[in-house]
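Attaching the record inline, Q. Sequence:
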Amino acid sequence: MKKKYKILGVIPARGGSKGIKNKNLYKLNGKPLIYYSIQAAKKSKLLTDFVVSTDSLEIKKISESYGANVPFIRPKFLSNDKALAVPTIQHAVSFCETFNKFKYDYIVMLQPTAPLRTHYDIDNSLSKLIKEGGDGIISIVDVNNYHPVKMKIIKNDRLFDFVDSGLENPPRQSLPPIFIVNGAIYATKRDVFMNDNTFKGNKCLPFLMPPERSSNIDVIEDFIVAEYHLNKIKND
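Structure, as predicted:
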């Protein structure tokens, strides 16, 4: 990239969590979960700035101890379990642009629940987004054996195919590739995000990531899987 773009990374980390208490501070390999997203953002060569958006003074303090900028406390109306990602990130963008007195070119959401995403993933996805002129780019991973054709629904205590493929229990290799968002990276042109209220826009690009970097923390068991991959990456 010849032009130096202004790119803001936002790590959203509210204090409350229904599934795991204080999830963003829960220890993964001896470090709080949010540590890994902060480190990836710090190492990125393309992010101009990054901030942590939180309603928690404890998360603010710990994030700052790892070198993150936490310039505001997120308002209560964006901090309950019904708060949506888009307005939460828009709030951070508006605050940072007002404070810095300039507009960003691109916005990136880096959720703490994707701790195995690296700074290379951040920079490679941004490079693809800029080079190919997309409105947005979202990280995905192959669903592997959790293919929709293999899924079932229950009606009146009877089992039915979720998708009628005409085949019973087809081999995975015969099925078309299907992907799911892994929660690691959502990057968008600033004006598309702020004006159209979307991470995707009209031209959304895929950023394929491998399963070993696609752990998405939701339940305690996910920490076990993430820790396994984290240690394996270190030892390889």
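Strands lie at 7-12, 27-28, 31-32, 49-53, 106-109, 136-142, 152-155, 158-161, 179-189, 204-208. The two ends are 31 Å apart (CA to CA).

More tomorrow.
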